[in-house]
Amino acid sequence: MQDILVLYYSQHGATAELARLIARGIESVPGCQARLRTVPKVSTVCEASEPAIPAQGAPYVEKTDLAECIGLALGSPTRFGNMAAAMKYFIDSTSGEWMAGALAGKPGCVFTSSSSMHGGQESTLLSMMLPLLHHGMLIVGLPYSEPSLAATQAGGTPYGVSHVAGIQNDRPLSEDERKLAQAQGKRLAEAALRLQQPLPDSNH
Predict the structure, then answer these.
(1) Phi, psi of 148 (to 5 degrees)
(2) What is the pLDDT at residue 117?
(3) Which residue of 36, 42, 77, 168 shows the fewest CB atoms closer than 10 Å?
(4) At 138, which helix (H) or strand (E)?
């Protein structure tokens, strides 16, 4: 089995739910399994720290997860049109993996959630792609061949699946959002497996 890393940060649970649905899509592809991981919160208080193991949900990501995966789904809620500080903090710590090419040539996709319909989802998704491109990843989007992308009345973009959580963060994922999340996971896994196949011998 090949592992695909689903790395996310979630404060109210919506991004975590998207991550689980993406994982379900990944695991619908024979030969692939999802490795769900999260990142700890960051704090302005120097003495503050998170426990070594989260009280609930996925374990914290380790740098070895990046090297061991054959693909990456990266998710964060929208914060003023950008990814959350906790995710940015982790990504900023991956210069060693960048130097080693741990993610180079692997496929990656992005996902997000915001409280309002026009809360910066697309800019967040685009900004999350930038460090993946620096790492040499191949970006996998969501094509309009997915019917839910044109039908959705909530989240969903060609840059990656998204969710509109509501101002009180109490709006459940719509059926279209759920379908798109699973489709994105399946698409990522299929791309990752194709990229694992050896290139034909150019001498023949």
Answers:
(1) -65, -20
(2) 87
(3) 168
(4) strand 138-139
Pure H helices in 72-174: 85-91, 95-100, 121-134, 147-151
Spatial separation of the C-alpha atoms in residues 113 and 165, rounded to whole Å: 7
Alpha carbon of 93 to those of 96, 98, 139, 155, 167: distances in Å?
A: 8, 10, 21, 30, 32
Q: β-strand 138-139 against 162-164: which pairing, if any?
A: unpaired
CA distance 193 to 125: 24
CA 150 to CA 36: how far, in whole Å? Answer: 28
Distance CA 174, CA 18 (A): 11
Q: Residue 6 — pLDDT band, cuts 50, 70, 90?
A: very high
pLDDT, residue 140, reads 97
Distance CA 73, CA 32 (A): 13
Query: Are 73 and 6 spatial neighbours (Cβ–Cβ below 8 Å)?
Result: yes
The tokens describing 42, both together, are: 């960051």
Give 160's strand partners: 157
